[in-house]
Amino acid sequence: MSKIKKSKWFIIVNPKANGGRMGKQWDNIQQFLTDNNINFFDKKTTHKNHATELAKEAIKNGFRKIIAVGGDGTGNEVANGILQQTIIHSSEVTFALLPVGTGNDWIKTHKIPKHLTSWIEVLKKEKTTFQDAGLINCISNEKKLERYFINVAGMAYDAFGVQLSEGKNWYFPKIQYLLHAIRGLFKYKIHRAKLIFDEKEVVDFFYIINVGICKYSGGGMQLVPHAIPDDGQFALTFARKLSKLAVILNSYRFYNASLLEHSKVEGFFTKKIRVETMDDEPTGVEVDGEYIGETPVEFSILPKALKILIP
After folding, report:
1. Is the pLDDT of residue 90 over 80?
2. How many structural domains are present in the chain?
3. Tell me, what CATH number does 163's domain have?
């Protein structure tokens, strides 16, 4: 195996990131990397899930350090390539994210800088740690789907909100995500589901069900404020039926880590979760900001499966 490839970064660039601006900005970033003596090879994505294919191809060709250039969705695709391939254990590949997306939520837990100059310094030091990954099995277009995630998965209204926001570009994500979520309340019909974890069964109308490895989603919301990325278990949050007014009045809790203090919101730690449909309408699910399918859904934890670059 080539030592050169093992030491070189394979960079996967999503030119549609940041509202399509990354396609124009990449040449300048590429030059900045070269000026800072970063040894790399880069490829651009051309279609959905292409980043997953490119990550698998890179590992097959001997690369062991991969950078995703984009947002949380691009990071998810690259992480899926690392976790899906069977050539080596996923923990032998270093994953890094150059955050040029809209929400940039995954980096918040790890305090990875967004500014390119600061980020380059992190890259040069090559300090790494390990975090957990989640494996989800669900139904997508009437077929079984298996997908990994590295940040937060959401069901019920959270997944509905992601569907509504597909294709939108946020210039002020924290404010726009919140306003979008509140507007969507008046279109959403709450469904009943069965939630199973740790030999517990909860059957109710759920406003949200969130499964977290890291803390932040939705442009800085903390729907799983108790999440710890390397403890070998999920942080589970669920909210039972709430009035629209109650959601609006408590929206500040999404950001100040006090969500679990509300009487109709509960939080747990668990390693396996199953969610089943209990009425005519299935419950949707999103992972790392991408809508992927619906119930029945199962979540399994993969302890310290991903090696990541951190400050």
Report:
1. yes
2. 2
3. 2.60.200.40
